[in-house]
Amino acid sequence: MFEGLKKKFSNFIDSIAKKEEEEIRQEEKKDDAGHEKESAAIMEKHATMQEAEREHGAEPLVKPAPDAVKVHEQKERREEERQVEARQDPHAGQVKDTRMAFQEHGEGSRQAEIRKEDTAGRQAHEYKEPVERAVPRPAARQPEQKVTLGTRLKGIVFKEVKVSHQDVEPFMEQLRISLLQSDVNYEVTEKILNRMEQELTSKPIESKNLQRNITLVIRDSILSVLSKGSDVDMIARARSKKGSGDPFRILFIGPNGAGKTTAMAKLTKMLMDNGFTCVLSASDTFRAAAIEQTAYHASKLGVPVIKGIYGADPASVSFDAIAYAKAHRIDVVLIDSAGRQETNKSLMEEIKKMVRVAKPDMKIFVGESITGNALLNQVREFDEAVKLDGIILTKLDADAKGGNTLSILSETNVPVLFFGTGEAYDAIMSYRPEFILDSLVPNN
User: Fold this and answer.
1) What is the b/e burial string over 389-405, where b = at least 16 CB atoms within 10 angstroms of the residue's CB?
2) pLDDT of 179 strictly over 80
3) Would you say the pTM of this structure is higher than 0.70?
4) Strand 278-282 relative to strand 332-335: parallel, antiparallel, unpaired?
């Protein structure tokens, strides 16, 4: 009997939910029609204003200039009259000359005034580069993070409820906006949302504080992706080889301008703070001043540097650095390399040669966190070429939200190790999944 009543109540709630959904759809249609009508009226008004401006700008506001021929003829007549009077009365000619001078000066002043007025008129009405006006648009409806009435009513009676597509759609839409604004790849965003919606609608959710529980499920789902590889510990790996006579070798690779040399110096400082001795290999023999930059960092940090000459084989420089480390029982060799784009096949072959010669224990990709969607393609290509062991994302302090971390960890198996947060040697932080999660889905 209880099961029958329960079924009837559930059917009753479903009918209410369907009715509510139909009302919402009708309301949305009305709103959309109203927004379209309002937008059309605004655009029409804007077009009318632009047409009026064009018509006003086309009016002939500048008076035509005096006829130069007539002016010249008047001057000639005055000159003839002056000469005739001068022959009759030489003194009168002087007076006339003076009077004409003042008259011409007065006419010149008047002409200057006319020119000044005309110039001002032209400046006021001549064509100017249009200032971009923001056409007012109806405010977009922000999705409310609320489940449907039917599901809320079920939550009052039952301890757990299954949510529907209509229940989670507002949450998904808000999450989509947040991910895209944080530089998460579009295809990755859609994959995450589809997987998350299936997860939310496939199993019951505790009905107490239902909306909060949906947010927690979303956070847990994203955290499971962001936590991939977060247990990789570079310091622990280096410590496992310390004292063996074979130095721990780290090769830094990545695109131009990402900050490889600075990242190498930061990790050197970190390793020294943990009791390791280090040597730097200035193996970027291509970029101008790259060797000097590595030598500068080595001098500031107080560590030796092995360098060659520009144009030398970078693999041979790294080989010499490893030999030096073995001879002097140095714990870690940090190897710089020239920046290269993933599309440059010849330079990618060069980095493969460096890997074969140096046999690095870790191959770390250094990329900019502000690169956006292109970063995922770079990581894919470098990983395919040399099998990356970790990533350092630089310039997180440049208003980057780290969303591309989610793209990388969703589509590859390469862990993110560190974030660069400035130029100082200690401006580096270990990767924390919660740091990125809070920027993507705030824990409200």
Assistant:
1) bbbbbbbbeeebbbbbb
2) yes
3) no
4) parallel
Residues 362/389, Cβ–Cβ less than 8 Å = yes
Question: What distance in Å separates the CA atoms of residue 151 and residue 159, rounded to the nearest whole number?
Answer: 12
User: Is 252 in contact with 366 (CB distance < 8 Å)?
Assistant: yes
156-165, 173-182, 311-320: segment of lowest average pLDDT? 156-165
| Least reliable range by pLDDT among 82-86, 274-278, 417-421 | 82-86
List the structure tokens of 239.
């410590």
Considering the segment(s) 234-440 as one domain, its CATH architecture is 3-Layer(aba) Sandwich (3.40)
Residue pair 186/376 in contact (Cβ under 8 Å)? The answer is: no
As given in the structure block, the two tokens for residue 389 are: 């062991």
User: What is the C-alpha to C-alpha distance for residues 279 and 322, in angstroms, rounded to an integer?
Assistant: 9
- CATH for the 1-11+141-226 domain, from 3.40.1720, 3.40.50, 1.20.120, 1.10.260: 1.20.120
Predicted pLDDT at 2: 53
Start-end ranges of CATH 3.40.50.300 in the chain?
A: 234-440
